[in-house]
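Record pair follows.
FIRST:
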Amino acid sequence: MAIAALITWLLTAAGGFVLLGTWIAKGGVQQRSSSHLPPPVIFGHFLLAVAGLVLWIIYLVVSTKAVAWVAFALLIPVALLGFFMLLRWLPVYRGRAGGILSSTPPEHHFPVIVVGGHGVFAVVTVVLVLLTALGVGAS
């Protein structure tokens, strides 16, 4: 289960890199006034997720439960920030469909399939990390 968590975490990270790259390429850092996603939230989400992933890799090497629990603990604010960003992104997505946006925020360019996949893999990752930390499925 720990390896499955690593795989889903890496897939989540891949989607996150696409979204972060899109946001930066479309001017997210320069167009702070038009973006619905605050840079500290985006970069905080990214940095905490990377720190957790590094800890998860360390856990896979050393098999110390405390490391697994710290990685899981880091996923809590990552998930909360991700959910916050999703809630801020939804009106942008709806505005895209209705054409009601006065200016185009950088997150307007997010591929919906990537947003959805990132979220689904993130939820699966949190569940797998929790189950692994609890020792479910351990031999």
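SECOND:
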Amino acid sequence: MLYQPELIGGHVALDLLNTISWRLEPSRTVDRIATPEALATWCAAVGLSADSELEQVAAVRTTVYDVVLPIARGDGTGDLRELQVLLADAVRRATPAGPRPLDWTGADLVDELVLVAGRLLEREDLSKLRECQDGGCGWLFLDRSKNGSRRWCSSGDCGNRARAKRHYERVRAGRQV
């Protein structure tokens, strides 16, 4: 089956983190970019060039997730030291790429992903960063809904599952009375 990236995070860095499905349920966890072909498909979907090793991309993904997840949970930030080292290295290799003096393009995919993660932390309103409320999902997104009430990564996936579960529990409770 052809991999179709789900870009629901509202930011490329979050979409990278969301390439691991069911992160919080180890028996169900799936790495959606575990092959060079899948990585190339994801990169094409987000407008990047897939020119790095899977292991390097996975390492950046883990580092960024460890920093961003505590923010989504309202626990401050994770340990920034490793990401700061990656950012310094990426900027050293980067070239200017835009109207702003500090808009950089990475020398390769890993550098570009690190720079994208830096932009997430620097430029986005992190008070809108959320973790999907499905207990096993683990996906992250920026809640840009009008009233700030988005609860799930996808209303059609985790949201439907939660609504079906609530319905089942109501029906079951009604039968037991």
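COMMENT: DSSP finds six helices and six strands in the chain.
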